[in-house]
Amino acid sequence: FSSNSPILSYLIKGTDTPLIKNGRVDHKALKASHMSMDDLEEDLRQEGIENISDVKSARLERAGKVSVIRK
After folding, report:
1. CB 18 within 8 A of CB 26
2. pLDDT tens-digit series, residues 36-45
3. Is residue 60 a contact partner of residue 19, using CB atoms and an 8 Å limit?
4. Which of 18, 41, 47, 60 is most enclosed, with most CB atoms within 10 A?
5. pTM for the full model?
6. Residue 48 burial by CB count (10 A; 0-12/13-18/19+): exposed, middle or buried?
7. 1-46: per-residue pLDDT in tens?
8. Please, what is the Cα angle at 36 between 8 and 64, to 5 degrees?
9. Do the Cβ atoms of 44 and 55 come closer than 8 Å?
């Protein structure tokens, strides 16, 4: 049902949250998402990324997965 209504989808699932932009971590967004730096680093390692400076952007998706775009 929520797929038919963007407003209902937003209320149920929320929105994605930018966590990294141009290699810089948004610590406020990280805290608001109830994630630690260790959690973020673990998710990046699972994507094969060792250094945050190699990340163009990373977002916590509505489903709870971190999506990453490399520089």
Report:
1. yes
2. 999 999 999 9
3. yes
4. 60
5. 0.79
6. exposed
7. 445 666 655 556 668 999 999 999 999 999 999 999 999 999 999 9
8. 30
9. yes
